[in-house]
Input
Amino acid sequence: MRILVIEDEHKIANSIKKGLEQESYAVDVAYDGEYGFDLAATEDYDIIVLDLLLPKINGIEICKRLRSKNIHTPILILTAKGQLHEKVEGLNAGADDYLVKPFSFEELLARIRAITRRPKESLGTTLKAGDLTLNTLTFEVKRAGKPIKLSKKEFALLEYLLKHKGVTLTKDQIINHVWDFNADILPNTVEVYIGYLRKKVDKPFKNKPPLIHTVRGFGYKVGDD
Ligand code: CA
Output
């Protein structure tokens, strides 16, 4: 999952980024409303965490502009105490939820998970392909009942592939969803990580059909066919 944080207080923005990265999300940060809006309008995010009082373009205006451009990325508003009327305005402008500062990181994480689950409810928290399962809440990955230990990036990559089971995803799509904007991505980074996944997900299960497939010239997909 890729998250955009638009927040001008560097300390808050950076601690949110750090925390979310530890939870294996890819995070971009914008410290002003104009840059935040540009990123939100051009990049593909799973959720936007949006402060209201921002330099250049305020949060409510960002909500309105995005929704009027038909961009429906879920938005979680951050608002200071005493700005509660603005929170209502924000929700009217198309935001999905709000959080009052100061908030705990656990609360932020819970809201993000709740919001990003909403449109994908049918998928539930367990993603599957063949005898492989991945739980997006507990981070457990198993094949044929056997636990598989993945790094955070490997987990994020497998989660993205499983959410689009049977669909070929290009390297660009994968990079855009699994890595953040400033990450140092070399052309073969995706290949390298696909290799790591194969080593853990397919290689130890020699009698089983491989689940991770290379589609030559296009990209990768996961599936049991
Ligand atoms: Ca602010």
